[in-house]
Amino acid sequence: MAIDKLNLDKLDSGRNTFADTVRLMTQFDLQPVTAIENEVYEFPWTPGIMSDCLKCGYHCYVYEVDCEVRGYLIFSTVLDEMHLLNICIDSAYQNKGYGKQFINWLINFAHDNGTKTLYLEVRVSNHAAIHLYQNLGFNEIGIRPDYYPAKNGKEDAQLFACELAWG
Ligand SMILES: CC(C)(COP(=O)(O)OP(=O)(O)OC[C@H]1O[C@@H](n2cnc3c(N)ncnc32)[C@H](O)[C@@H]1OP(=O)(O)O)[C@@H](O)C(=O)NCCC(=O)NCCS
Predict the structure, then answer these.
(1) Which domains does the chain have, with CATH numbers?
(2) Whole-model pTM?
């Protein structure tokens, strides 16, 4: 099922206060961003990887509330495809609606910029994220075996896609 603009408006009716801002990440955000990354993930991206994301042309955004970085996301684009590479909310603020709001923002951004398909991978054990993506219109389209490092070897990724309608 493709998502159209009308549905997006409905989806976006969750939390949204004027103090919430999505803005481009800068070098000055690397400290809070890597602090969140290290705290949240068992296998975090290094500060060097984060810095390279800013330099190599990936699209990096932060979710800010009252001038405090609460989360970030990073995606790449190729023609009419977008690939979400990382989304992370500060663990102190998870399950409060920020992640949903941030993905809704991304879907709107993708839609407005002519994206046809939005892809992402997620650990098969990450039930919170899978629940979120499925609720927002993503469908599982495959499995990438041994995609992630894990304590006892590797973990599979579920590949999700969200089809966006134009017009
Ligand atoms: C996954 C993540 C981005 C979701 O953001 P969030 O702000 O915590 O999620 P929200 O509060 O917006 O909740 C969205 C939905 O997920 C559910 N959810 C959130 N945390 C959950 C949890 N720990 N267990 C079960 N469900 C959860 C909420 O109930 C909500 O469902 P609903 O819309 O049916 O009410 C965030 O938890 C996170 O950063 N996790 C660690 C990093 C990560 O796993 N990133 C994704 C990599 S693919």
Answers:
(1) 5-163 (3.40.630.30)
(2) 0.91
